[in-house]
Efflux RND transporter periplasmic adaptor subunit (Brevibacillus composti), 410 residues
Amino acid sequence: MNGKWLYSLIIIGLLTTAACSNQEPAAETGSEVKKVVLATVKQEQAVKVTELSGTLAPLEEALVSFEVAGRITELTKNEGDTVKAGDVLARLDGSDYSLQVAAASATVQQTGATLAKVNNGAREQEITQARLLVEKATVAYNKAQDDFKRIERLYQEKAISQSEYENAQNYLTVAEKDLQNAQQAFSLVTQGARAEDKELTQASYKQAVVTQEIAASSLAKTQLRAPIDGTIIAKLTTEGSLVGIGSPVYRVGDIRTLKVVLPVPDREIFAWREGETITLDLYGQKRDAKVVKIYPAANQGTGTIGVEVQVANERKDWFAGQVVKAIKTVEGKTGLYIPVEAVISRGQGEAHVFVNQGGKAVKTAVTIGEINNNRLEITSGLKEGDQLVVKGVDRLFDGDPIEAAGGQPQ
């Protein structure tokens, strides 16, 4: 710690004392014996108590909202109610979503029947019918062919007109086309649908199934369920309200354990460890809390590092949003520590104390180290066992006769 800064602190607190120290020493002969408080200088370990404030928050918290839009028909929970993950918290009017499910189910049935027909092929009756049509067309074609041969001979012999010849020719052509159509129909019935037709029908069926699943999922989402175990912290809407996707309905939090993020100055973060126990104070009520996380970066605006602390709250008698004070005791190095009021400083880097030597106050220059809880570390000028004047120094001059108040040094 900067020495000048320490000395400035001492000057502010001990201005009167410093003024007295500038006076000339009184004559020793016949001087009044002054009552003072003495203390024995000894080695001790520095202890620093750090106090920080933070706001309590639920260990886990969620804003719960619908994934579909609609009108709220029921809100089943109120503030303070305990819920389990999966509990129904609210419901929307699901009429429209139910109709969508019904329509999608009908489409699945229709496309499923078509797919089955394509995959299974024609029935035996349809195959028999197609075969008979081929036979009938074959008979008709053979007859038309015989008739055409006979008409053709008569036409060559000029026994019939050209018109009758052309009619016979056309009849043969039609009979041939009928036979080809019957044969193709019979082939389709016996061989089944083409591969691409089967794939198309199967794709239509899968799409219908997906649409049905989406409709069923949307219907299920008209019931709002708790995502975590916890307590209803706030109800954010009312029955009958129209809500959109993502509109908050409840705030749910786990308050059986609370957490607080403490803003620890970065120069002190070395003294904090994950897993250690500290004390939290809420209006005089103290509880042990555990350090669970030290954040990896400092806040550039405040120069602090977040330290997350968790505290048990099974009775739920501490509340989210309350401000608690964190108390942490840090043990420092061992040295000679004396009260601040025992030191007199001129503000120029010079400091002294009064030591009892044979019943006289002896002015002794000292060097100051760290300041800790209103006690100063003395790095030179004193030794363990010295009898130090800790009260009454403002009335002393070098060489004054002194006597311990109460007769014995502390």
